[in-house]
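Below is how a single chain appears once it has passed through the pipeline. First comes the sequence as given, then the structure the pipeline wrote out for it. We keep one example in the README because the format questions we get most often are answered faster by looking than by reading.
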Amino acid sequence: MVAIGDCGLMLEPQQGMSVQEVIDWGAYAEHRGYGYIFRSDHLLPTNGNMDRDSVECWVTLGALAATTKRIRFGPMVTPIGFRNPALLTQMACSLHSYSKGRLLLGVGAGWYKKEYLAKGYEFPKLHVRHEQLIEALKIIKPILEGKRVDFRGKHYGANTVCYPYPRKRAHLILGGGSSFVRRAAVKYADELNLFNGAPADFKQLKQQLSESGRRIEISRAGPFFLAKTTVQLQRKLKAKLSLLRTWNLPASIDGLMKRKVLCGDVDEFASQLNELRKAGVDKFYFDLFDPKDKEMVDLLTYTLKD
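Resulting structure:
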């Protein structure tokens, strides 16, 4: 059975979300017993109305640190190209120290070209972004461990130590399912996060990571669709047709399941979670596809508690 403390809610930028809405969802998640709340760190919506971006991710993480007491929080994930890695780690350590050890630092290579160009960033080719990620991790990991880093690479450099250094080291998450990211996770990360994914994907991932001889947590992030009955779920999907189209998602239960999206009535949904747990998923992060649909989130909370 999946415990609610092993689960988190994830907030996307598409909906023009305000700082107060992020704070409200943080309070909801903490009060209901979730273990985590994340912000997806994007500078533009990834689909839909490009003029309705939400507030900057790290600003809202500061607000979450100040308005919650127990729940752990962080970016899922921060593209390394947005911020110098030494500065990013200083930001993370500062929030981690202030929140008494509750920040999780999720990083990735970045993939969304439009947001880079819209904000004046160069968008390098994939192999360059991979080089940047590895160099960034060579800076981030020792700083998180309280060590001085003296590094000069092709893309980044740092000669610094973190202050204030938290008593507890921040948990480092890598996001992505490629073989490159998996190899990097084995060397640098505490956790590897995969977006969507079926049980077979996680069984394979767990096998590959176990062969490394290093214990790395495996988490799954992605949207979900849930209702008390199949008929109610079909009606819900029909009502969300326009929103589903902006996410390039099918509006049928079968179509969503073929896309490896969690989808079903209460019993079916719980069965899917349990199957993924057996396949090796340690944590589940549920993307709030429609944060206005509190009824569906309440049902998720009930299902996890049941």
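The longest helix spans residues 126-144.

See the next section for the split statistics.
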